[in-house]
Design a protein that fits this description.
The protein has about 450 residues and is an alpha+beta fold. The protein has 11 helices and 30 strands. Helices cover about 25% and strands about 30% of the residues.
Length: about 450
């Protein structure tokens, strides 16, 4: 039932690729948003039948805030779905992306014959009898050649030629510098379950993907080629083994070289620490490593000391930006269903909130705790994990809220007036920041109009 982000890696043509798999369906955890801050490039997977789903729009919006390079993969071509041109138009309109088709499907569903690789100018044929076997690409110097009919038939060949002619006339040619700036997004078609069309994507990705990128800190811009190590925590996973209550913090290396058993500076606490067992993730395995470089994702054992957003350096006092909490969409009171397990419940809620499963707000009026989530399924995840990992039970009550807004103001008199008027809807987040839980869009708009010297933030980083 858990929809936590998975972290893994693999090698392709001697190039290591780190994968942070973030689900883009209706229900996912709060940390899905923050995970994108650790990505130097993103592959967005679109279902050929469903098209662009609502949460995918939100994830891409976060990518666009940071100008992250994006590749689009349109999946499940072995099933019936929307027309390719209609899908491209939908992606451009809903996600606000400029697309550049790099491959194009030949048919769909029962008529699916393969893909034409516009990047390498060759044809890859799909075999329904042996779905895991991909035929080697057939080189086509000229798509007008009569050899095309021999492979896919005359009707499919005419349709493919017309489609490619239209694509070349309407859509821009690929430009790597535009892609790296996030202004142009290559598009590939295929069927990931059948391992078809994926090789074309990976071949192109391996060639055009960006090197580890510079990262903005509050103090300065940090370049990956600097000698001094620095990195930040973007995800925490609690209770990997519930019997040992162990936690692991996932750290993205930004600059320099990370070394095992070397002292590093934790900027938030001002203390030094060393990591005796840092881990790296390769496919389904994890192993202890001795060193890591910019772009690598490593796991650090955590006893509750670290938070999402923490920065680690050799000695410099840096604080990386761009790892915010976003306004949740669902709000519920959390109640203790077993009075004898209050301690276990509090501990479990604290650790799960640290992990980023959801956000915790405490009403200032009566100290009742409210959990805010991005997706409704997370309430079931929290309830299940509290019971099975912490031996605690909880129940929920609906709390009528539309948005959580972090507020700040330099006008103390107006802030005090607002606090008196909206005291029922004021809360503090886990780190003591003041939050307004607006009960409706109208209420939020009225508050913004009336209290013009108060700033309402939809994310915690401001």
């Amino acid at each position: 039932i858990s929809v936590a982000t998975s972290v893994m890696g693999f090698y392709y043509k001697d190039k290591k690729i780190n994968i942070l798999d973030t689900p883009g369906h209706q229900d996912f955890a709060e940390d899905t948003y923050r995970t994108l801050t650790a990505c130097d490039s993103v592959i967005v997977v679109i279902d050929v039948a469903k098209g662009v789903e609502p949460q995918t729009e939100k994830l891409v919006k976060v990518c666009r805030m940071r100008a992250t390079p994006i590749i689009v993969f349109i999946n499940k071509l072995d099933r019936e779905g929307k027309d390719g041109f209609d899908l491209i138009d939908e992606v451009e309109q809903k996600l606000g992306l400029t697309l550049c088709p790099m491959s194009w499907p030949i048919g769909m569903g029962q008529r699916f014959k393969g893909v034409y690789n516009m990047w390498e100018k060759n044809l890859n044929l799909y075999s329904a009898e042996n779905k895991q076997k991909i035929t080697e690409g057939t080189k086509l110097e000229n798509i007008e050649s009569s050899i095309l009919e021999d492979y896919i038939g005359s009707d499919a060949a005419i349709e493919l030629r017309n489609d490619v002619e239209l694509l070349e006339a309407v859509y821009p040619r690929f430009n790597r510098s535009e892609y790296l700036k996030g202004d142009l997004c290559p598009v590939f078609f295929g069927s990931a379950l059948n391992n078809f069309g994926v090789r074309e994507l990976l071949d192109c990705f391996q060639e055009i993907a960006p090197e580890p990128q510079a990262k903005e800190a509050e103090e300065r811009l940090v370049q990956p080629n600097e000698d001094s190590f620095s990195g930040f925590v973007f995800k925490i996973h609690a209770n990997i083994d519930p019997n040992h209550r162990n936690r692991i913090a996932f750290l993205k290396v930004v600059s320099g070289k990370f070394e095992r058993n070397k002292n590093y500076f934790h900027t938030r606490s001002g203390k030094s620490f060393k990591v005796s067992a840092p881990t790296a993730f390769m496919a389904s395995k994890k192993s202890t490593i001795d060193e890591a470089y910019p772009g690598d994702i490593i796991g650090i054992p955590d006893n509750g000391t670290f938070r999402i957003g923490d920065t680690f350096t050799e000695k410099e006092n840096l604080h990386y930006k761009g790892i915010p909490s976003f306004s949740p969409e669902h709000f519920r009171f959390i109640n203790n269903a077993d009075p004898l397990k209050a301690k276990q419940l509090n501990k479990g809620v604290d650790q799960l909130m640290d992990e980023g499963v959801a956000q915790l707000f405490t009403l200032k009026q009566n100290n009742r705790k409210i959990i805010g989530t991005v997706g409704a399924l997370q309430y079931e995840v929290i309830q299940y994990r509290l019971e099975h990992e912490y031996n605690a039970k909880c129940s929920y009550e609906n709390f009528p809220a539309f948005k959580a807004c972090w507020i700040e103001s330099h006008d103390e008199s107006q802030l005090q007036e607002f606090s008196i008027l909206k005291q029922r809807y004021l809360a503090e987040d886990k780190y003591g920041r003041l939050v307004f839980l607006a009960d409706s869009q109208f209420s939020l708009q009225m508050a913004q109009d009336k209290f013009d010297k108060i700033t309402f933030h939809m994310k915690s980083e401001f």
